[in-house]
Design goal:
By secondary structure, the protein is of the alpha/beta class. It has helices at about 20-30, 35-40, 40-55, 75-95, 110-125, 140-155, 170-175, 220-230, and strands at about 15-20, 60-65, 100-105, 130-140, 185-190, 205-210.
Length: about 240
């Protein structure tokens, strides 16, 4: 399968991926979970490369959930170090390919070293516009909505926003994803059929694609299969076809 199978007129603008299956992949080789997380970096690079070639404008990856803080401290520390070193290493490639890096989530919980490296990447790629790569780190959709509700409530109390003017646009402006479009296609690897508290507001009309492949084994053909499946869907947004 190659890019010729893809209709260039029906490319999703925003693709989000729940990168699941690293731990199970590592167990197949009798390795610790970190072996899977580290091996999954290649799938990240391949997904970015395909997104650039297809002309996808926004790619959001679920890198570390709010619930992941409950994992063993050793694994969490390893993941935080992996995030920091991976972003630092990839900054030249991000700049070369005009990729803008964004971080969404509660970054106040991140170790200082990780936070510094991530936001160095954000700063150094801020002028790029070919692809927005958003890493969801310490992210939870419910927590995001609670945060937005508190911010809006505070502004209502201060008469900055009137209750009557609260609409979807106001809510969007107070989300981590305020600079992003709504998700067109959500891909989840690993064979699980759930959303795991990821972008619940933003995927309201997204097409969902669940794949049985574990994340480190996610290749070009899996991404293209998801795009082809997406292009075969009838996206009515509540309307009736004429």
């Amino acid at each position: 399968m190659d890019n010729d199978t893809i209709n260039p007129l029906l490319i999703p603008k925003h693709v989000a991926i729940i990168m699941d299956g690293n731990g199970r992949w590592a167990r197949k080789f009798n390795k610790e979970r970190f072996f899977g997380h580290n091996s999954g970096i290649n799938a990240v690079k391949e997904s970015i490369d395909i997104s650039l070639k297809l002309g996808i404008k926004q790619l959001t990856l679920y890198a570390f959930s709010n619930e992941n803080w409950n994992r063993p401290k050793k694994e969490v520390n390893s993941l935080m170090n992996l995030l920091a070193t991976s972003v630092e290493k990839e900054i030249p490639n991000l700049k070369k390919n005009k990729i803008k890096l964004e971080i969404i989530g509660d970054t106040s919980k991140l170790p200082e070293k990780t936070k510094v490296k991530l936001f160095e990447g954000v700063s150094e790629t801020s002028g790029n516009n070919k692809l927005i790569l958003s890493l969801a780190i310490s992210y939870g959709a419910r927590q995001e909505l609670i945060r937005a509700t508190k911010q809006i409530s505070t502004k209502v109390k201060k008469n900055i926003i009137s209750v009557e003017n609260i609409d979807e646009n106001i809510i969007n402006e107070h989300l981590y994803t305020r600079n992003l479009k709504n998700v067109d296609l959500l891909i989840r690897t690993g064979g699980e059929l759930r959303l795991s508290n990821f972008l619940l507001w933003q995927i309201s009309y997204a097409e969902l694609c669940f794949q049985n492949v574990l994340w480190p084994d996610f290749k070009k053909e899996h991404f293209l299969n998801a795009i082809i499946d997406y292009q075969a869907r009838n996206r009515r947004f509540g309307k009736i076809n004429k």
